[in-house]
Specification:
The protein is mostly helical. About 75% of the residues lie in helices and about 5% in strands. Strand 1 and strand 2 form a beta hairpin. Helix 4 runs parallel beside helix 7 and helix 13 runs parallel beside helix 15. The longest helix has about 45 residues.
Length: about 450
């Protein structure tokens, strides 16, 4: 491999290649992000078991879901500034090691308070997204940044879907093998994602580097690393905040569905934990192709219509998402609910990819901080939505037959919450559509969208 290809950003993405530090970093980054999401949402499909064992109320479940996303807000803002200064490798390594601790220890919870605190601490792992987007942005040329960011993000986000599918299976397997009782299975199942975070920490530190030119500690190029206050640079640009609101409307909803879909399917349609996890997992697996599709389409549109074209795409995707959410909420049966979850999930995840196809072009010296602020917006959206779900949820009791006996179960209905959320997303989609022309008028640093080749 020539020197040119080893220390310059790549202008092509071949996902089947491991050649060069750029592609090695790409694959390790998305794989690490995958297990971060797996650990972050590992408890979601097991909440029904934990809820019953710890005797959690509807309000307490709502508080736990809020805690799972709220810590990520500050973490993403802080991480964005840190990686601009110190580079992604060392920051990601420490994040993985520190966050492995609450994941491993949440199984020791014996009360609502301890469970809530561990869930809050686990939420910090959501800051991994900012590092992932920064690292792929710096490894690839402008013409392919959107595709690279969306592909890495999509593959990684699929970890949430994988958790919904595999965590109930892991819990069931531990019970079947006699390691624990069914009631305690969620405690032992969480050991797996905790261990995987430690494995990823080793791989990331050992086999990646901060940029194609090397680690930040050895670089002097201020266009790659920055000693300026990049957070203020990012915060002063109004485009950052428009993308922040847009990301709250797509990624914020994604986190909400990852957290609430398993309970929605068990309590609204009577699905078992395993079936609910499998169905909710479909939503997560859409990330594998949908988020990359959003980035690819956005890059192609950007080459012709620039920043304005990409923003128009984003607004259309948000409008489709809102309509799909409303239809999903009003589904009368589980079959229709699954289909509509796929429809709004496809547009939502494409919107995720389209948003981060725009992020690297806001300001090239503050990519980490812009990514951090926009990423935090996703979690602010998720937190506000969780508060809404807590207030809009209705408490139900229903008689069900278990082991031949009639048992009264406490259920939670989120239909009205999902309906209201759909109308809110529709409003944000309209707002982004209105603002797109205003955004396009600011030309600094975005002319490269149309013609950049990365050479």
């Amino acid at each position: 491999m020539t020197a040119q290809t080893t220390n310059k950003p790549l202008d092509k993405l071949n996902i089947f290649s491991l050649k060069g530090v750029q592609m090695k970093t790409f694959h390790i980054t998305w794989l690490t992000f995958f297990f971060c999401f797996f650990a972050w949402f590992g408890m979601a499909p097991l909440m029904k078991i934990a809820r019953e064992q710890l005797h959690l109320t509807k309000d307490q479940v709502g508080n736990i879901q809020i805690a799972s996303v709220s810590a990520t807000i500050l973490a993403r803002l802080l991480i964005g500034r840190l990686i601009d200064k110190f580079g992604p490798k060392i920051i990601y390594t420490w994040l993985l090691v520190l966050c492995a601790l609450p994941v491993l220890l949440i199984g020791t919870s014996q009360s609502y308070t301890s469970f809530l605190l561990f869930r809050l601490a686990i939420g910090v792992i959501g800051a991994s997204f900012v590092i992932t987007q920064f690292h792929t942005s710096i490894m690839f040329a402008p013409n392919i940044k959107g595709t690279a960011n969306a592909t890495a993000g999509g593959f990684g986000n699929a970890g949430g879907g994988a958790a919904n599918v595999f965590m109930p299976l892991i819990a069931s397997a531990l019970t079947a093998l006699g390691f624990c009782s069914s009631a305690d299975s969620w405690r032992y199942a969480m050991i797996f994602p905790g261990v995987m975070l430690l494995v990823c920490a080793f791989l990331y530190y050992r086999y990646t580097q901060d940029s194609p030119q090397g680690d930040f500690k050895n670089l002097k190029d201020e266009t790659i690393k920055s000693s300026k206050n990049t957070f203020l640079i990012a915060a002063k640009d109004y485009r950052t905040w428009i993308l922040t609101i847009a990301y709250a409307a797509c990624f914020g909803v994604e986190i909400t569905v990852d957290n609430f879909a398993p309970i929605f399917f068990t309590d609204s349609f009577g699905a078992t934990i395993a079936i609910a996890g499998l169905v909710a997992g479909i939503f997560g697996w859409i990330n594998i192709f949908a988020r990359p599709m959003g980035g690819i389409v956005a890059d192609k549109i950007g080459k012709v219509w620039g920043f304005d074209g990409k923003t128009l795409l984003l607004s259309i995707l948000l409008l489709i998402e809102g309509i799909g959410l409303i239809w999903f909420a009003k589904s009368g049966n589980i079959g229709m609910a699954i289909f509509m979850m796929f429809v709004f999930g496809l547009s939502l995840k494409m919107a995720n990819g389209a948003t981060y196809s725009l992020v690297p072009f806001i300001n090239p010296v503050a990519v980490g901080s812009v990514a951090g602020i926009v990423g935090a917006g996703g979690n602010i959206g998720a937190m506000l939505i969780a508060f809404m779900f807590k207030s809009e949820a209705s408490h139900l009791t229903k008689n069900v037959i278990e082991n031949g006996q009639t048992v009264q179960k406490d259920l939670i209905n989120y239909t009205s919450a999902f309906t209201l959320l759909g109308y809110i997303i529709l409003g944000i989609g309209v707002a982004v559509f209105i603002f797109r022309t205003v955004m396009a008028q600011k030309k600094s640093k975005i002319e490269e969208l149309a013609f950049a080749t990365g050479n």
